[in-house]
Design brief:
The protein is α/β, with parallel strands linked by helices. The chain has one domain (2-27, 34-204): Rossmann fold (3-Layer(aba) Sandwich), CATH 3.40.50.1110. It has 10 helices and 7 strands. It is globular and about 45 Å long.
Length: 205
């Protein structure tokens, strides 16, 4: 009974937020125009000016706060596939590691998400964004570095996968650059997002 409750809670926790995302974009999405989806946890959700940064593209920002990889798997259809994107940028894993999820389970969820996307759209390009370093989670840096290494390896043998390293550019003298974060020490300020843009822009075009 407890297991069922946990599974149900996991699959329905973000139902309202996902519904609001769909409500927002369903009214403005142009199916005849090429679409790029940015999705994942709060680092994507809080990137408010993605569309302005890439005005020549139709951008869907379906990021949902506090999500983990399994949550994106549960909502792959609603947050990615329904918009038939030519490119998908995914940022997940950050909250998984903080929540002590096993690396193999995180990677397994990524693999299933990727398989679902490929099955629906064989031409889609999937860009996996590395975990970022942060002040709040710097004590977990070795786990994040291990995760990023595995994520990069996942992309190396697949022409439909690309890897974006945002970890290294957010370091200063091998430590996290504290000037890139808002007061909570976890989420980025404008300077942090400017760095993200500098490495992600080449993968958009």
């Amino acid at each position: 009974m407890t297991v069922f409750f946990c599974q149900s809670q996991t699959s329905t926790r973000f139902k309202n937020e996902v519904g609001l995302i769909n409500q927002k974009y369903d009214s403005i999405w142009n199916a005849s125009q090429e679409t790029i989806v940015f999705t994942g946890s709060s680092s994507i959700k809080m990137w408010k000016n993605i569309q302005e940064l890439f005005p020549e593209y139709q951008i869907i920002n379906s990021g949902f706060g506090e999500s983990q990889t399994i949550d994106l798997l549960n909502y792959t259809d609603d947050l990615i596939l329904k918009y038939k994107p030519k490119k998908i940028f995914i940022y997940e894993g950050d909250n998984d590691i903080s929540d002590k999820k096993r690396l193999k389970d995180i990677l397994n969820s990524f693999s299933i998400i990727i398989s679902k996307i490929k099955k629906e759209n064989t031409e889609a390009q999937i860009i996996l964004i590395s975990s970022k370093p942060s002040i709040a989670r710097w004590h977990l840096k070795r786990k994040y570095m291990r995760f990023n290494k595995k994520l990069k390896e996942m992309c190396e043998d697949d022409d439909h996968l690309e890897f974006v390293n945002v970890w290294d550019i957010m370091l200063e003298n091998r430590k996290v650059n504290k000037e890139l974060f808002i007061d909570d020490g976890l989420h980025m300020n404008d300077e942090g997002y400017k760095l993200w843009y500098s490495v992600i822009k080449n993968h958009v075009q």
